[in-house]
Automatic annotation (TrEMBL):
NCBIfam families hit by this protein: pheT_bact (TIGR00472)
Localisation: Plastid, Chloroplast
Species of provenance: Biddulphia biddulphiana
UniProt binding sites for Mg(2+): D370, D376, E379, E380
Lineage: Eukaryota, Sar, Stramenopiles, Ochrophyta, Bacillariophyta
Protein name (Swiss-Prot/TrEMBL): Phenylalanine--tRNA ligase beta subunit, chloroplastic
Length: 713
């Protein structure tokens, strides 16, 4: 998941001195450090030119998803000091009175920190001009409401806060004292959110309650009854760090993602949450000097002890390899001093053992989510040094892997289908349950699908193949024939689950000319059957056909033009048939489409069990090829002619092939013109052309006597 943000370099310069740093070099360093700069914008605000970077960051770097966070990253990359924020050095006199702390400490899986503060004497909603300018620089439109303060603090620190109208909360309560609790919904209930939409809540949804009233869907959106307005005089401000997995799951369940929930999904750290509360209150006090604060609820999990990570110098060199050097004859590695410098720039606390060349490192808490192993620190060292500054060397392989029998069979089958004119396809195993199969056949549903259109495991390859043809037709590609390997699933996850690999395909859309005397046309069912038989001939497999149809295919294949294929062992190999005409009409595709689906495991075993073929020695003497053209009655079968030629052609006639058959205006009615190729070859001597010509004349005479042929010159 990628997170995007607009970063003002003028804002960054307040925290890191980058005025004299080359912009192109800065962008290159960010890009090589996994922060992709997608666009550079130039804005003029209050007659001041500001450069804005549109930056994309990966989800595991939640610490960098703010101006403060990206500024720390830039400080480390360009080796310049990070300026401490002024508000961290300012003190705020709280009226600290913890009224209740009813959030149970045992629920560590739901939150890390929960803080609720009551703000009173809020009279002025004016937003400072400088704050609005920074919002504009970040691509947000100021509203002159409290929303601007929420957005600003989110941009600056990365922490989302929720504001509630404290007076509205009090007016809804029957008693003066109220408790805040995080709890799961016990029964299915409706929640009217601040966006004026109703959401159905179930027992998987975490909510924040004030006594018995719903205050918000935790970490996502507040209740409409407690929204603040420009007349609000007192606020209840909630600042929390929730479990990212819980927020992600419940956002998917209710179908709602907000700016707040999106931040929690990235696994925020609570290191600077208290300081951020200070910052927010100080911002509100700018226009409200008589503002009062009361700490109402605070609860947090026990801070986990961060273990030390040991970094071995030898391991760093093994992973990152040699660095670029001015000398091309000597291999140079990154030095111990350089590594120590990079650790310091990353704010890592460390000690170095000069005997073992090992660093003992303490990672700062705000990087504890993404740096947990030695390899993570090595990656950080590579980022700061620049991965482009390391030499690229491929490892020397001593042993090469061998192709197992399954892979060899797959290559052979693929070659056969490619030779038959098919294209290989790759498609998803996850489909929509509402496909073309019989609705009585149950799919295996996915418990937690990402999308409703991909909620079940497929039970056949054919529906996706039909959809692919339909989509190609819509794009103007009518000549589409393909096959694919894929897994299909049946049964149920509890009692009887089955997964098998299949080979499926679809063809017939390409019109061909099968007869010289006829125009191009779609192939018939028997011609399609012949195409499949040619594939099995290439695989040296003998199969037989039986008129039957599996219930899985009743909605997909033609009821009376479908056959099941069997091996000689009696095992059912799969199915072949024409597309159901009703389905073809629904998908707006031609009816002359033929589909097949075979069991790959059975096919592999059948090929593996084939007997070893015997080969005869290849002759060293040349062939003599002769053609014989004649006109013969259509009642005479070619097989009879072929047998006659083979019987009388001597042992040197090794092959008889039909080259051409023609019927037209120059041929008498009821007759056909055949062109036959005769191949003569000896294993003992070189044949003489004169002897072959004499034998050819004898064969012509035999055919004239038996079949009354007319020889064409």
């Amino acid at each position: 998941m990628i997170f995007k943000m607009h970063i003002s370099l003028r804002w960054v310069d307040e925290l890191v001195d980058i005025k004299n740093f080359d912009l192109e070099q800065l962008i290159e360093k960010l890009t090589l450090s996994s922060f992709e700069v997608e666009e550079i914008l130039e804005l003029v605000i209050d007659s001041k030119k500001t450069t804005i970077l549109d930056i994309s960051a990966t989800a595991n770097r939640s610490d960098s998803m703010s101006v403060k966070g990206i500024s720390k990253e830039i400080a480390a990359l360009i080796d310049r000091p990070y300026k401490s924020a002024k508000y961290l050095r300012q003190k705020l006199s709280w009226k600290t009175r913890i009224i209740n702390s009813y959030l149970e400490q045992k629920k560590y899986s739901e939150y890390l920190t929960f803080i609720a503060i009551i703000i009173e004497n809020l009279t002025d909603y004016n937003v400072p001009k400088w704050l609005k300018a920074k919002l504009v620089n970040s691509g947000l439109i100021p509203t002159d409401t409290l929303v601007d303060f929420q957005n600003y603090i989110l941009l600056e620190t990365g922490y989302p806060f929720e504001f509630y109208d404290f007076e509205k909360v009090n007016s809804k309560l029957k008693q003066s004292v109220f408790n805040l609790t995080l709890t799961r919904v016990k029964t299915n209930e409706h929640f009217l959110a601040s966006n004026n939409l109703n959401y159905k809540l179930n027992k998987n949804i975490l909510v924040l309650k004030v006594n018995e009233l719903y205050l918000s869907i935790a970490g996502t959106i507040s209740h409409k009854d407690f929204c603040y307005t420009n007349q609000t005089k007192a606020l209840l401000i909630e600042g929390s760090i929730f479990n990212s997995k819980i927020i992600r799951q419940q956002s998917r369940i209710i179908g709602l993602r907000t700016d707040r929930s999106t931040r929690y999904e990235k696994e925020l750290n609570n290191t600077y949450l208290i300081e951020t509360f200070y910052r927010l209150i100080l911002l509100l006090k700018i226009s409200n000097p008589n503002l009062t604060c009361k700490l109402h609820t605070i609860a947090q999990t026990k801070k986990q002890h961060l273990p030390n990570i040991f970094l071995n110098y030898k391991k760093v060199n093994e992973i990152l390899g040699p660095i670029r050097s001015t000398s091309s004859f000597q291999t140079t590695f990154i030095t111990v001093r350089q590594i120590s410098n990079y650790l310091k720039r990353l704010n890592f606390t460390y000690s170095f053992d000069q005997t073992l060349f090992v660093w003992k490192i303490k990672v700062p808490s705000y990087r504890s989510n993404d740096i947990i192993r030695e390899i993570d620190i090595i990656e950080e060292i590579g980022r700061l040094h620049g991965f482009n500054n390391f030499l690229t060397k491929l490892p020397k392989l001593k042993n090469f892997g061998t192709e197992d029998f399954s892979y060899q069979i797959r290559k052979k089958i693929t070659s056969c289908f490619l030779a038959a004119g098919f294209n290989e396809l790759v498609q998803y195993s996850i489909v929509n349950e509402q496909t073309f199969e019989d609705k009585h056949i149950k799919h295996i549903n996915i418990v937690n699908p990402l999308l409703s259109g991909y909620s079940s495991l497929r039970i056949s390859l054919l529906p996706n193949l039909i959809k692919t043809v339909s989509q190609n037709v819509k794009q103007g590609n009518f000549n589409f024939e393909g096959f694919e390997y894929g897994h299909v699933f049946s049964g149920n996850m509890v009692l009887d689950f089955s997964e098998r690999e299949k080979i499926g395909g679809i063809f017939g859309a390409i019109k061909t000319k099968t007869d010289w005397a006829k125009p191009v046309n779609s192939i018939t069912w028997f011609e399609g059957k012949g195409k499949i038989e040619q594939v099995f001939d290439r695989l040296n497999l003998v199969i037989y056909w039986k008129n039957s149809i599996n219930p899985v295919y009743t909605q997909i294949l033609h009821r009376y033009r479908t056959a099941e294929l069997f091996l000689l062992s009696g095992e059912s190999l799969g199915i072949f048939g024409q597309i159901n005409p009703i389905l073809a009409k629904e998908q707006n595709i031609v009816r002359n489409l033929y589909l097949f689906e075979f069991d790959f495991e059975l096919l592999k075993n059948a090929i593996q069990n084939l007997k070893l073929p015997l080969y005869k020695e290849y002759t060293l003497y040349p062939k003599i090829v002769k053609d014989l053209s004649f006109i013969v009655s259509q009642k005479v079968l070619f097989e009879d002619i072929k047998k006659t030629l083979s019987d009388h052609g001597t042992k040197f006639l090794i092959q008889v092939k039909l080259l051409d058959e023609y019927r037209g205006q120059s041929i008498p009615l009821g007759y056909t013109s055949l062109c036959i190729q005769l191949i003569f070859q000896s294993n003992e001597k070189t044949l003489v052309n004169k002897d072959v010509e004499n034998r050819l004349k004898d064969l012509e005479s035999i055919l004239i006597d038996q079949y009354n042929i007319i020889v064409r010159v």
